[in-house]
Design a protein that fits this description.
Blueprint (H helix, E strand, L loop, with lengths): L13 E4 L8 H16 L4 E3 L5 H12 L4 E6 H6 L3 E5 L5 E3 L11 E5 L2 H11 L2 E4 L4 H16 L6 E4 L6 H12 L11 E4 L12 H11 L24
Parallel strand pairs: 1-2, 1-7, 2-3, 3-6, 7-8, 8-9
Antiparallel strand pairs: 4-5
């Protein structure tokens, strides 16, 4: 597997992590749609996991609908199986799969990679920052990994967490507890930027997308990463990304 030597290439693209299910609240769909519309309006390409179901499909569909650019990165195993599966099954117990490249989504640039790790590296390489919407285990893991990469100095990119209906309150509390307990440095608490709905605003109409992109653009590093990864060559360390 060949990894890029840098994750700091100039780009305005944004990588979005989110669920392949819709969730139980209309506000989740609205936030995804709002983000997609904002990306297209600002001329910022979307980089995402390549599926078309759930809020993953909502955000990519909104970008396409409003004339934006979309790149989907999919591991080959998922591509062969039909794509990311929504967390539902048919009456006979067979998983319902997302179909990639279906009618109406021909403009999505699809990149097939060999593994989940390569998918995350490719998405990070193509993005100037990251936005997390509600999702499940995969979304949690992706958000935490790119935060960790900034902490380590593998890259220096903002991570914005869209806290729809308090979905990520527990994650914020966990980070704060880790700081209090001495496992995360206080200066690194804000490597994750949480976007909340303003008091009195309706989360089903609030412009989550513009708020998220504004936070992404206003972010600045709190200090250097823990390590200087660029001093290593790929032959010295196969996981050097910057």
């Amino acid at each position: 597997m060949t990894l890029p030597t840098s994750l700091e290439q100039p780009t305005r693209a944004v990588a979005v992590y989110c669920g392949s299910s819709f969730g139980t609240e209309a506000a989740f769909r609205h936030a995804a749609n709002s983000l997609g519309r904002a990306l297209a309006a600002q001329g910022r390409p979307l980089v995402y996991g390549g599926g078309s179901k759930g809020i993953m499909g909502v955000v990519s569909g909104a970008v396409l609908e409003h004339g934006g650019s979309v790149t989907g990165v999919v591991p080959s195993a998922m591509s062969r199986a039909g794509g990311e599966s929504e967390q539902v099954v048919s009456e006979n117990g067979v998983p319902v799969y997302v179909q990639l490249g279906e009618k109406g989504r021909e403009k999505v640039e699809s990149i097939v990679v060999g593994s989940m790790h390569e998918r995350k590296v490719e998405m990070a390489r193509r993005a100037c920052g990251f936005v997390g919407l509600p999702g499940g285990y995969g979304t949690f893991e992706e958000i935490m990994e790119v935060i960790t990469w900034t902490q380590l100095g593998i890259h220096s990119k903002p991570v914005v967490v869209v806290n729809v209906l308090g979905f990520f309150d527990s994650l914020r509390a966990l980070i704060q507890q880790a700081v209090k307990s001495g496992f995360i440095k206080a200066q690194n608490e804000h490597l994750a930027l949480f976007i909340d709905c303003p008091a009195g605003a309706d989360p089903t109409t609030f412009d989550w997308g513009t708020a998220a992109l504004s936070a992404l653009d206003s972010w600045s590093p709190t200090g250097p990463g823990l390590y200087t990864w660029a001093q290593f060559s790929k032959s010295d360390d196969p996981l050097v990304l910057s």
